[in-house]
Amino acid sequence: MLHINLRALATLVTAVTAVNAVPVTVKAEPNQFKAVVELFTSQGCSSCPPADALLKSYINRPDVLALTFPVDYWDYLGWKDTFASPRFSERQRAYAKARGDGSVYTPQAVINGRTHAVGSRKKIIDKSIIAMDRLSPLSVPVDFRIEDKMMLIDVGPAPDGKAGSATVWVAIIQKSGRVSIGRGENDGQTLTYYNIVRELTPVGMWTGEKDTIRLDTASVTWPKSNACAVLVQQGIGGPIIGAAWMGLDG
Questions:
Q1: For residue 77, with 0-12 CB atoms within 10 Å meaning exposed, 13-18 middle and 19 or more buried, which class applies?
Q2: 92 is in which domain, residue-wise?
C-alpha cells in the first residue's frame, strides 16, 4: 500500500467528486526510460556551461529522463543562482553520503541515483547509462495523468513480487530558462538551462504493491511549470527504481 505523507501534502491532497462533468485528461508520455540523469549545476560555475548544453542532447533521447538541479553553494563567488535551491544541494550531498565517496562538485551528473560522472563527459555518462540499465534498472512501472483537475500517479508492483520501500517524488519542471549572468565566473554570458527542477516534493511511500496517489493539480503546479516528473526512489540518496514524465503545455 501507499502511505501518504500527510505533512508534506497538507496543502496538496484534496478529495474531488466529479458530478455531471466530462473529465479532462492529460496523460504522461509513453516512455521506456533506461536512466534518470540528474545534473547538479550552478550559474556561478565556469565549468558548468558545457554540461548544461550537453544535457539538452539527453532530453532529446526517449530512453533518458534528464533533469537539472541547480545548487546554491557557489553563490558566494559573486552571482546568486536564480534557479538554485538549498534542497538540491542537500540532495547532492545525500547521494555522496549514500555512495560513501564524499564527491560533491559541479557539474556532476548522477545516473539512476547510483553512480556519478563529470556532467560534461558524454562518453562516461553514456557508459554509465548502459551499465545502470543492466545493474540497477528502472524496474517499477510508473504512470501518471491529469483527470478533471486531479493528478493521479500510478505506481506498479515490484517486478519480483517482493515487498519494497521507496519514496514517490513529484518534480515540478520548467522546460527551459535563459539567464544573463551579471557577476561571478560566468559574468557577461547568457546561458540556457533545460528541464529545470523548481520544486521536488515527496508525496507518498511505495511498499511494493500497486497503488495510486491522488493530488490536486492546481496545488502541485505553478504558473511557470510546463512539465512534471515522478521519481520512485529508495532511501535517502538511494537508487531510483521508477520514473515517468508528463508535459503540461500541450
A1: middle
A2: 25-247
**Would residue 70 count as lying in a domain?**
yes
Q: What are phi and psi of 101, to 5 degrees?
A: -105, -10
2, part of any domain? no
In the sheet where 142-147 sits, what is the strand order? Answer: 25-27, 142-147, 150-155, 211-216
Q: How many domains does the chain have?
A: 1
In a domain, 5, yes or no: no
CA distances to 9, 65, 77, 131, 220 from 112, in Å:
25, 10, 30, 10, 24
Per the structure block, which three cell numbers stand in for 201? 516534493
Residue 3 lies in a domain: no
- Confidence check: pLDDT of 235 > 50: yes
pLDDT tens for each residue of 19-46:
333 445 666 565 689 999 999 999 999 9
pTM of the model: 0.87
* CATH code, domain with 229: 2.60.40.10
CA-closest candidate to residue 210, choices 250, 170, 161:
161
Q: What distance in Å separates the CA atoms of residue 86 and residue 71, rounded to the nearest whole number? A: 6
The residue type at 128 = S
For residue 41, count other CB atoms closer than 10 A to its CB. Answer: 30
DSSP 29: P
The 10s digit of each residue's pLDDT in 44-53 is 999 999 999 9
Q: Which residues contact 114 (CB under 8 A, 6 or more apart)?
A: 99, 132, 135, 136, 239, 240
